User: Fold these one by one.
Assistant:
Number 1:
Amino acid sequence: MSIKSNLSKRQVTGVIVLMACLHLVGCGRSDIPELGYVEGTVKIDGQPAAGKIVQFYSDEGGRAGTGVTDEEGYYYLTYVDGEEGTKVGPSTVRIVTEWPDGEPPAGESDPIPPKYNSKSDLKRDVQPGNNTFDFDLETK
């Protein structure tokens, strides 16, 4: 014996999507690891570095904490929207220039040497609570 439903496929799909959304909202952010608040400044050859993206990649993997420097070179990290900081523990730090189109204009390259970004040797150990990490990068 079969039971015929009065619901269309569109209605069933809508109900499933609604249930999924309610599930996501109801669960909150239980998947966020322990975070430490991180702030500091970035200088290049002693001068404040504006428009630089600062990323802390946990040695354990996962999402990076990311921030952008202001005109004074100040940054703070955000893990996800509404959650400031980055994962607690050892991290590799990468600092790159923020380009308006995502890439440097033709004929230009990032003034930040690779040892601070694509081949970064910057390491910091993020602790629970507040952390201040200043970076004075040298181009020479």
Number 2:
Amino acid sequence: MTNRRTVLKSLVGVSALAAAGVSLPGIALADELETLKKNGVMRIAMSGAYPPFNFINEENQVVGFDPAIGEEIAKRMGLKVEIITTAWDGIIGGLLANKYDAIVGSMSITPDREKVVDFVGPYYRMRRGIFVTKDSKIKTLDDLKSATLGATLGETHEQWAREQGYKVRTYKGLPELMLELENGRVDAIVNDDIPVLLAITKNDAPIKQLDVKLGGVADEAGIAIRKGNPELHKAMQDALDAMQADGTYLELAKKWVGGDIR
């Protein structure tokens, strides 16, 4: 998931405030690990609209692979977790504004984002897929040139679709994307393939993946934290590495996604 406009806006704002000598809550002046341990809680953010990676269940709880990963990392650091859901297109801004301590929400690691945040991980791979209804006449990428392509606002897939010159309509998350496709309000959607394929199987949705080559692995997901926190970064990376080594990661991946996605 990326938003070049959001990242560039953040870069400009940060530079201007720093030049004016204004203290920035989102830029760490000292490593935050000690503060987190003192408080005993790590606040992690995600959209809550990206099943099976993060979503709100019938009990109004945020569950999925992302919160499970975040909770396990925090547990190994001796911390509890507070999960915060927020709109994806402003999620980096919220991190820089100290509204939470990390983003554990299937965020793609990109050069633009690495200018303003540091990443722990990666903790899983992503492949871009294009999906259409089973009765669609769209067969090739050329057919998309006259179509409307749905994407989640702020994701790397939105940026990719615009760079290809496609007509793009944006939405808040995957459930809305799939509903709009089924109802004919968009001709195709672009998204990471795993969550869509799982949703198709679970809901017996009349949707299929377009058999086209999009360049293999689109992105890798990382956990975003504020820059200037090497001790926090190391503690989180060590916890992630340990859970991958001892089999905990695979257990969580099988539970939520159906298999290993490293």
